[in-house]
Write a structure and sequence with these properties.
By secondary structure, the chain is mainly α. Helices cover 56% and strands 5% of the residues. The longest helix has 28 residues. It is globular and about 65 Å long.
Length: 311
């Protein structure tokens, strides 16, 4: 890749929202679409999808419409197809007890409510407790409100609160966590590690890059065999400090999530009960429930502020 060899390098990245809309229009040319289908909305609900993923989405939606003996593919078909692509097929044969179903409902609502009240940048589009894929007993679909290429430290910490909201809800309501939060802990730990070792978002470690991971490098930089960045050696003392800081960041996010859910226990109960009964919450109903919860949360904050000012 030195000058005089391959001088020009073209990076083919995943498409942005406008690109996804154009790709969807290409794949939807031969598909009869209902009047309620909005490809712009679909493009905003598919962040991270590559061209092949979008082609698969259109095919899945068309198959669903055909199985339902419909002449045109509707927005509901596309919505179900997105769920299939992201979370897998519904497992209607997987029977779970009402006790497990109730726990899953609180877990998923915990994700949504904690992330929403923490001031996250993502919109809650759907909460479901219908088992899907190999192991998922439920999922919460959160999508960014707009295309973003940078995240502030505050946004990342709010995201951590939402990720750990499921475990927090289980601890607040049932007094102990379950194994259902194992993937959440993995995600939260990975994000916290990146904050400490890559983004310099730790006061104790400082604004330095101490990552020793071997990451692929395609555009410039010091490379080792196989096109990987040469990692820095990290001493035992610094390594222990990094581990302690990662643990602190994750624990702080979990504490913040539990505090939010305890303070808004009434909203947590109301939304979880609705999810337990309907199994899926989305659209205007979900928006209204979250809007009411946020309004009550703001009222509580203002009353506390007024009380402190009076003292």
């Amino acid at each position: 890749l030195r000058p005089g060899r391959f001088d020009r390098q073209v990076l083919v990245d995943r498409p942005d929202r406008a690109g996804r809309e154009q790709i969807l229009r290409v794949h939807a040319r031969g598909v009869p679409l209902d009047d309620d289908v909005d490809l712009r909305v679909l493009s905003s609900r598919t962040p991270g999808f590559a061209g092949a993923d979008l082609a698969n989405l259109v095919n899945e939606a068309a198959l669903l419409a055909a199985r339902r003996e419909k002449d045109k593919v509707s927005m509901a078909d596309f919505s179900e197809a997105i769920d299939r692509v992201i979370a897998g097929l519904e497992k209607k044969s997987r029977i779970i007890t009402d006790e497990e179903k109730r726990r899953v409902a609180f877990h998923e609502v915990g994700h949504a409510l904690a992330g929403h009240l923490a001031g996250g940048d993502e919109t809650i589009h759907k909460i479901s407790i219908i088992p899907r894929g190999m192991a998922a007993l439920g999922y919460t679909m959160q999508l960014p409100t707009e295309e973003r290429y940078l995240m502030t430290e505050g946004s990342i910490r709010s995201k951590l609160v939402g990720i750990l909201g499921g475990r927090a809800a289980e601890e607040v309501v049932f007094g102990e966590p379950s194994t259902g939060a194992h993937n959440d802990l993995e995600k939260a730990t990975d994000i916290a590690r990146a904050m400490v070792t890559e983004y310099g978002m730790s006061e104790s470690i400082g604004p330095v890059q101490v990552s020793s991971e071997r990451r692929p490098m395609f555009l410039g930089g010091r490379e080792g065999p196989g096109g990987f960045r040469m990692g820095r050696d990290v001493g035992e003392e610094l390594s222990n400090a990094i581990d302690a800081e990662i643990r602190r960041i994750v624990e702080d996010a979990l504490i913040a999530a539990k505090r939010l859910l305890r303070d808004n226990h009434e909203s947590l109960e109301r939304i979880a009960d609705a999810l337990f009964e309907r199994e899926v919450l989305e659209g205007p109903e979900l928006e209204e429930l979250l809007r009411e919860a946020r309004a009550k949360h703001q009222e509580r904050i203002e009353r506390k502020r007024d009380s402190q000012a009076a003292e």
